[in-house]
Amino acid sequence: MFKTSIASTPLTTDAANNYFRNIDGERFGNDNSFLATLRALVAPRMKDGESIHLRFGRSSYSSSQISNASVDAAARAICNAYDLGDASNQVVIHSFTADQESNLANMRVIEKLPACYPGYHQLDKVKAFYRKSFNVDCYINPERKNVILFVDNLDNKKLHYLQVSILAFLPWYFNPEDGVSDIEMQLIYSLRESSPDKYQDCLSKIAEQYDFRTARIRQLLSGFETRYEKIERDKVRNSIAATDDKINQFNNEIGRLFGQRNELCIKLMGLERKIEEGGEDSEIMEYFLCNNRLVLEEVTDTDMYFCVKDYLTYFDREMAEQYINNERSFVYNGRHGASAEKMKKLMWELFVSEEPRLRIKVCAAYRFNLNGNVGTQGRHNFSYEFSDCMPNPHIDRWNCIGNYERTINQLLMNRDYIGALEQCVASCKSLNWGDSTVMGTFMNTMWNSDDGYNNRCIELPDGRVVKPAEAIKWLEQQEAENEQTTEEAQDE
Questions:
Q1: For residue 460, what is the DSSP state?
Q2: Residue 369 near residue 303, CB atoms below 8 Å
Q3: 114-148: pLDDT as tens digits
Q4: 360, 335, 338: which is closest to 472 by C-alpha?
Q5: Which sign, positive or negative, has the C-alpha torsion 387, 389, 390, 395?
Q6: Separation between Cα atoms, residue 140 and residue 127, nearest integer Å
Q7: Is 26 helix (H, G, I), strand (E, B) or coil?
């Protein structure tokens, strides 16, 4: 039972939330694991139209308060917020948060819950399973598909251990004859371990079974390229209504206003025809679906927010060589925790070598405005998908995309969204060695002098992504192996 709070999982991202609309719910503090485990274990067993809503609650009635009320009144006071008589498809986890004696008094009262709420019965095997660890009581209503668990002072460790019994207290979704898959069993066992690593690894493997990205892109970009025309259509309709009012008010201007109305009607017809011909599928949607370098985050009627991840590609090798050869340059300023010789070895491999064996993975966040404007999202909070990338300092730290901005804005004005996206990808892959301010930030991030910025971004030939210190170690190992091979060849 690990106590680490699991705030983010691949089954509770925005894309996953959109996919699992039939299983939603609340966090326990900052921990979102219960919802993730529900989706991992129960979603494959649910039929169309079924749903689950996860809720958390607490009460701290003292033993004196409990003893001064009738059993029925006390039980209803504890459960009042959950609407157990009418609600359906909910899993409730209720924590008693008073002292030990008071919590036990509450537990005794809750044994009368079936008398207060017909249709509920106690699930003895759940209570017995946790008896040696902590006090738990479980009641289910199979007809309404409701579950309510009462826990003595719920904490993260207890929360994670409770998830072991999810299939037990949701029997209407679990057929014992079908059993569970190997990865599901591994997930259940991982909840008993002292570290969350195995649990998170199992969730990642289960998440691979779902195509969250395609569903998210289709949901966000459906009809994107006709949204501008729809906005214009509404404006034109309002103008038509205003024009009709003026016709009635100014008889001396009837001719001019009718002419204006006819022009607007023609424009409306053109816009509606374009909307009809546009459909829901679009070139930009296909581009996002086929391009793994782009991660779509949000789309509104006027703006599109997205991130780019790619390899650092565009930089001046000759300029990089000059700075790397100058031991007084920004490459070696500051306290980077590595010798100048080792720093030079790595920088040379990355930026000067004609056939570099190592590559840097970078990312950046952008915002498109349909009216013809592009902006950066500086200091962006990148999701777990970018845990192997360094935020490009030009964009993330200094909100600058240089000469790309004018080109992108012109492409957006011409509705060339694909061209604008390609320019954003190009800006993400660029690094200007001539900008000493940006390069100082880059070097601080590379050598982990800037707290909070990821520097696990260097990809080895075998696909592993490591930090600079590990990359240097890899280079040294290659040199040692080459020297040994040379010596053996000479001996022969």
A1: P
A2: yes
A3: 999 999 999 999 999 999 999 999 999 999 999 99
A4: 338
A5: negative
A6: 12
A7: coil
**Element of type H or E holding 192:** none
Considering only CA atoms, which of 152, 130, 150 is closest in space to residue 138? 150
Cβ contacts of 67 within 8 Å, gap of 6 or more: 105
Percent of the chain whose pLDDT exceeds 70? 91
Report the 10 Å Cβ neighbour count for 226.
19
55 pLDDT higher than 90: yes
pLDDT digits (tens, 9 = 90+) for 193-204: 999 999 999 999
For residues 97-112, give the mean pLDDT.
93
Contact 257, 241 (CB under 8 A): no
Q: Residue 337 belongs to what H/E stretch?
A: none
| CB of 296 closer than 8 Å to CB of 220 | yes
Cα separations (Å) of 172 from 39, 50, 142, 182, 368? Answer: 15, 11, 7, 21, 47
Query: Rounded to 5 degrees, what are φ and ψ at 364?
Result: -160, 155
Of 4, 46, 12, 52, the residue nearest 32 (C-alpha): 12
Written as one letter, the residue type at 487 is E
- For residues 134 and 114, give the distance between their C-alpha atoms in angstroms, rounded to a whole number: 22
Q: What is the pLDDT at residue 403?
A: 84
- Say whether pLDDT at 224 is over 80: no
Structure tokens, 27: 């966090």
Cβ within 8 Å of residue 195, ≥6 positions away: 2, 4
Report how far apart, in Å, the C-alpha atoms of 227 and of each of 230, 270, 272, 277, 282 are: 5, 14, 12, 13, 12
Interatomic CA distance for residues 175 and 189, integer angstroms: 19
CB neighbour class for 250 (10 Å; exposed up to 12, middle 13-18, buried from 19): exposed
